[in-house]
Amino acid sequence: MRWGDMRESQNVEDRTGARPAGGGFPLGGGFKLGGGALILIVLASFIFGINPLELLGLLGGGAPPTQQTAPPPGYGPQKTSPPTTEKTFSAKVLGDTEDVWDAVFKAMGSRYEPPKLVLYDRAVRSACGVTPSAAGPFYCPADRTLNLDTSFFDELHRKFGAPGDFAQAYVIAHEVGHHVQNQFGTMRQFEAQSQRVDDRTRNVLSIRLELQADCYAGVWGFFAQKRGLLEPGDLESGLRAAAAVGDDQIQKRSQGYVVQESFTHGSSQQRMYWFKKGFDSGDPRTCNTFEQRTP
User: Fold this and answer.
1) Best label site of 142, 155, 173, 176, fewest CB within 10 Å?
2) Do the Cβ atoms of 255 and 199 come closer than 8 Å?
3) How far apart are CA 129 and CA 146, in angstroms?
């Protein structure tokens, strides 16, 4: 991917090395934990090497973390900042998503308000609370921030088997997709509806929300390709990344079997399908996963 030719966003804040103040640990986006989300947190704990009992203890309402002179146990060594290339790469991909969605919103007679990208390590505090890096990249709708520990890029390569810069760009574009949902009002509708249903139905709604964000990521990819920013193999790299973070693949790696009822993000096949759908169409109107009987 020719990411060096992309415009670098100024909406990036580097908080690496900072220690967040106390608070609870929500699951990405600030939503309340349901049964399936709780399972996902436990799986994330195994995948990223954090003791699940320790993480669940924090989720269960333990005392807020206090100011410390050393990094909290399990978060790994403190680093001063991510490598310059990772910071620049993230800022340029974000800048390109800004350009794409600004044009798309203008064509729809609306205005795109770009999110802020927060780079961090170990844990980050947002309007959604304090979240450990083990939860992975996430979007907080309350303060319209994308939160990314760039060490996830290495995890994507080594543990998820999805190398390549376009695979990394897919991660950012997916979280930007959640911001697009926030501007469209989809997240408010999701939250209102999910509060009226049981955990299993909420998981189904969560899958549709995540798959739509995948489709929006594909929309960005369509325009990146149209402007000659993609190279041979980039689409395949993005599809591998979408497949690698499917609930079924995560569960197979972490526990050796699949519990479909606990899915919250969609299967590998679903995630690839919706990313490709957006990539082929370049039209966000094709991304209405909530209207499909089976997304």
Assistant:
1) 142
2) no
3) 13
- Residue 284 falls inside a structural domain: yes
Alpha helix (H) ranges present in 147-258? 151-158, 165-184, 186-194, 199-226, 234-244, 247-255
Q: Evaluate if residue 241 carries a pLDDT over 50.
A: yes
Q: What angle do CA 20, 86, 48 make, to 5 degrees?
A: 55
Would 217 be classed as within a structural domain? Answer: yes
Beta-sheet pairing, 129-132 with 138-140: unpaired
Using CA atoms, how far apart are residues 126 and 137, in angstroms rounded to an integer? 13
Two tokens at 225? 């390709």
Would you say residue 69 lies in a domain? no
The three-state (H, E, C) secondary structure of 176-204, written as one string = HHHHHHHHHCHHHHHHHHHCCCCHHHHHH
Rg (CA), the chain: 18
Q: What are the pLDDT digits (tens) for 60-71?
A: 333 333 333 333
Instruction: Find out whether 205 and 193 touch, Cβ atoms under 8 Å.
Output: yes
**Mean pLDDT across the chain:** 83
In a domain, 66, yes or no: no
Q: Pairing mode, if any, of strands 116-119 and 12-14? A: parallel
Structural domain including 244 reads 3-61+75-291
Q: For residue 23, is pLDDT > 60? A: no
Number of domains in the chain: 1
What pLDDT is stored for residue 262 in this prediction?
A: 84
With CA atoms as reference, report the closest residue to 243 among 130, 143, 161, 149.
161
Q: Is the pLDDT of residue 188 over 80?
A: yes
Is the pLDDT higher at 30 or at 183? 183
Question: Is residue 130 within a helix (H) or strand (E), and if so which, with residue range?
Answer: strand 129-132
